[in-house]
Amino acid sequence: MTVNRQNGITPTTKEEHKGIIEAMRPYLNTEEKPQIGIFWYDAAENDFFGVNSLDYDQIQDINNRRTYPKLHKTIWQKQRYRGKDKHYFGDYTMVPRGRVNYENGEFVVYVGSWIDEYNESVTELLKNYFNLKQFRFKKDIHWDLGHGWSEEDVFDDL
C-alpha cells in the first residue's frame, strides 16, 4: 500500500495484491500466523535466543514493508543490564543475528555471510520460531559478525 494525502492509504496495485495473496497462500488452512522479528543464533546450542517477534499482520505496512520496531542493540543492552543470561555478556554484533521482514509480498530474512555455514539449521529454526513456510535469505554486511550500528563510531569521525 502507498500513502496519499487525502486519507493516508491508497488501494494496492493488482501486482501488489497478487504478491500478497501468493505469500499468504501457505497459511490459508492454518491457525498459525507468520511472524516478523529479530533473533540471535547460538551455534553451540543450534538454537535461537533473544527472539522478539509479532504476528506480521500486527505491523503496519509502510512502503510495502513491515519490520519489527525494536533494534538488536536496544534489546541486547536491556538484557545485558539485567545480567541474568550469559548470552548477553559480550558484543551483540559478534553473535550471528538476523531480522525477519515482510517486503513486497514475501518474507525476507536479513543475515550476514555467517548463514553459509548454518543455512540448514537456521532455516528449520525460522520455520519453527517465526511460523515461516516460505522465505528467502538476504545477505548484507550489516549482519556480518562484527558489523552493526554504533553511535560511538559515528561521532569518532566528526
Explain this structure.
By secondary structure, the protein is of the alpha+beta class. The chain has one domain (14-156). The chain is built from four helices and six strands, in the order H-E-E-E-H-E-E-H-E-H. Strands 1, 2, 3, 4, 5 and 6 form a six-stranded mixed β-sheet that branches. The longest helix is centred in the C-terminal third of the chain and has 16 residues, at 115-130. The model is unreliable at 1-10 and 150-158 (pLDDT under 50).
Tell me the number of strands: 6
Q: Between the first and last Cα atoms, what is the distance in angstroms?
A: 39 Å
Radius of gyration: 17 Å
Main pleated sheet:
6 strands, mixed
Mean pLDDT: 83
Q: Provide the structure class.
A: alpha+beta
Total separate domains: 1
**CA-based shape:** globular
Low-confidence stretches: 1-10, 150-158
Proportion of beta-strand residues: 15-25%
Specify the helix fraction band: 25-40%
Number of H- or I-type helical stretches: 4
Secondary-structure element pattern, one letter each = HEEEHEEHEH
Please write out the topology:
Layout: H1 14-24, E1 35-42, E2 47-55, E3 65-66, H2 72-82, E4 97-103, E5 106-111, H3 115-130, E6 136-139, H4 151-156
Parallel strand pairs: 5-6
Antiparallel strand pairs: 1-2, 1-4, 3-4, 4-5
In brief:
This protein is α+β, with helices and mostly antiparallel strands and 158 residues long.
Jot down its keywords.
158 residues; disordered C terminus; six-stranded mixed β-sheet; single chain; 6 strands; globular; alpha+beta
